[in-house]
Amino acid sequence: MERLLIPSLLLALVVGVMGCGQETASPKGKESGAKAQTEDSKHSGWWCDEHGVKESECSMCSAKVAKAFQAKKDWCEIHKRAKSQCFICDPSLREKFAAQYKAKYGKEPPEPSDNMPAKDAGKS
């Protein structure tokens, strides 16, 4: 019995070490498991930093949410997001959503990295 135990443990150790560092494909098949987990964690919080709205209401991150906005005829065809969340068409909307963040956290929200008008828009 002891003669089988040591080789079995060594085999398990070798298989375990060989498995370490192996990348697992994400559901999209393009990213490593670690990167996919990081991407998913970006969308697991209350606020969508990238778009400046509540994550649960982000029409740019969730196809299901986008579909609901489209069904209500609240959709910006130009920028592919809810019209009521399109800071590009209506920059004043940002303050409406920023107020929700301020009410929860008592501070200004992070600047969205997407969903903002171009810095040079309107300049000739």
Polypeptide structure, described:
It is a single chain. Helix content is 40%, strand content 3%. It is mainly alpha-helical. The chain has a domain at 48-114. The longest helix is centred in the first third of the chain and has 18 residues, at 2-19. The radius of gyration is 23 Å and the shape is elongated. The chain starts with a helix and ends in a 19-residue tail after the last helix.
Rg over CA atoms, rounded to whole Å, is 23 Å
Task: Note poorly predicted spans.
Answer: 13-41
Structural class: mainly alpha
The number of distinct helices, counting runs of at least 4 residues, comes to 4
Quantity of strands, as a count: 2
Q: Report the sheet with the most strands, covering strand number, pairing sense and barrel closure.
A: 2 strands, antiparallel
Give the termini separation: 84 Å
Task: Choose one word for the global shape.
Answer: elongated
Q: Give the rounded overall mean pLDDT.
A: 77
What share of the residues does DSSP label as strand, in percent?
A: under 5%
Which sequence of strands runs across the widest sheet?
1-2
User: Level of helix content?
Assistant: 40-55%
* N-to-C order of helices and strands: HHEEHH
